[in-house]
Design a protein that fits this description.
This protein is mainly alpha-helical. Helix content is 73%, strand content 0%. It is built from 17 helices and no strands. The protein is globular and about 85 Å long. It holds the Pfam family BPD_transp_1. This is Microcin C ABC transporter permease YejB. Its main location: membrane. Keywords: Cell inner membrane, Cell membrane, Membrane, Transmembrane, Transmembrane helix, Transport.
Length: 364
């Protein structure tokens, strides 16, 4: 197993390199970069009149050069070309793309993500600042969906075709069909001071006076704020995992070794949890990394927007809109690395659940 783990870790290097290289190449062709963002803000504020170099003669003498810059950056006509060059140097665009990509990889290998373009804070500090919200959402969604879905999926498999299976399937399908953000809006309208009741807060994961509360009050306040976002997110995750668990158990229950175990006089509980569970749960475990990463980042993006939860999903979205590339690439790097390691962890859990699986005998 040690050799397999080492091979997987070594394979992460080219995988991560490919992800970053493709993303970096795509960014080079994306319009509206950080220089254009600054130019747009200046021109909208009438800044071009102030930055043209002083008097009318100076502005006129620089117009031709500025026109060349304007051919590169939309809206730069009339701006001092020296000012544009300073902007390029500030954002690192005065260097060739390959050199910038190499420097980025070297820095990221040392977890040096630099500073945000538009916030007076380092990228790592910014990510750590938003991390508690995303950790809260990701861990609770994953935990709740598995704690609800696995027992329910097993029960549905055992009661396949009964009224219990039929009506719970209806609930699951409806839950799967409703987007999480739409359900979140409905919860907000009903229970967060919309058109009906004002029972839950609408923003943040804790109250403003949270530091002044006692520990029991802090716990109650935290879950009071998280109740609606978690309910909205659990719905779709719970539905997917439930159906996956049920179908996996149904497939295993119909196999010959289950008939043999029952013929030996084992109880239904012994058959299910002593024999079927270990085999049926393999496919559920295989989906754990994707479920965790989705709940931790992309799955919570719209919910963070709706309930004003300032987490990594919202940070990543805003960074893309603002073209804050250090934050964008740092998020991409961290979550790609996290996804690769969680995938390895999933394989190790495979071997723990079913010792018959030996990855060292297979090619990576």
């Amino acid at each position: 197993m040690g050799a397999y783990i080492l091979r997987r870790i070594l394979l992460m290097i080219p995988t991560l390199f490919g992800i970053m290289a493709i993303s970096f190449a795509v960014i080079q062709f994306a319009p509206g970069g950080p220089v254009e963002q600054i130019i747009a803000k200046l021109t909208n504020q009438g800044g071009s009149d102030r930055l043209g170099g002083g008097g009318g003669d100076a502005g006129g003498s620089n117009f031709d050069a500025a026109g060349d810059v304007g051919s590169k950056y939309r809206g730069a006509q009339g701006l001092d070309p020296e000012f544009i060059k300073k902007l390029e140097k500030q954002f690192g665009f005065d260097k060739p793309p390959l050199e910038r990509f190499g420097m980025m990889l070297w820095n990221y290998a040392r977890f040096d993500f630099g500073n945000s373009y538009f916030r007076d804070i380092s990228v790592l500090d910014l990510i750590l600042e938003k991390m508690p919200v995303s950790i809260s959402i990701g861990l609770w969604i994953t935990l709740l969906s598995y704690l609800i879905s696995i027992p329910l999926g097993i029960r549905k498999a055992v009661k396949d075709g009964t009224p219990f299976d039929i009506w719970t399937s209806g609930v699951v399908i409806v839950g799967y069909a409703i987007p999480g953000f739409l359900f979140g809006i409905m919860l907000m309208v009903l229970f967060a001071g919309g058109s009906f009741w004002d029972w839950f807060p609408l923003r943040g994961i804790v109250s403003d006076n949270w530091d002044q509360l006692s520990w029991p009050a802090k716990i109650v306040d935290y879950f009071w704020h998280m109740a609606l976002p978690l309910t909205a997110l659990v719905l779709s995750a719970f539905a997917t995992t439930t159906l996956l668990t049920k179908n996996s158990f149904l497939e295993e229950i119909r196999k010959q070794y289950v008939v043999t175990a029952r013929a030996k006089g084992l109880s239904e509980r012994q058959v299910l949890y002593g024999h079927v569970f270990r085999n049926a749960m393999l496919i559920v475990i295989a989906g754990f990394p994707g479920a965790f990463i989705s709940a931790f980042f992309t799955g919570s993006l719209l919910i963070e927007n709706i309930f004003s939860l300032d987490g990594l999903g919202l940070l990543g979205f805003r960074s893309v809109v603002e073209r804050d590339y250090p934050v964008v690439f740092a998020n991409l790097y961290i979550f790609s690395l996290l996804g690769l390691f969680v995938g390895l962890l999933s394989d190790l859990i495979y071997t723990w659940v079913d010792p018959r699986i030996d990855f060292e005998r297979r090619d990576v």
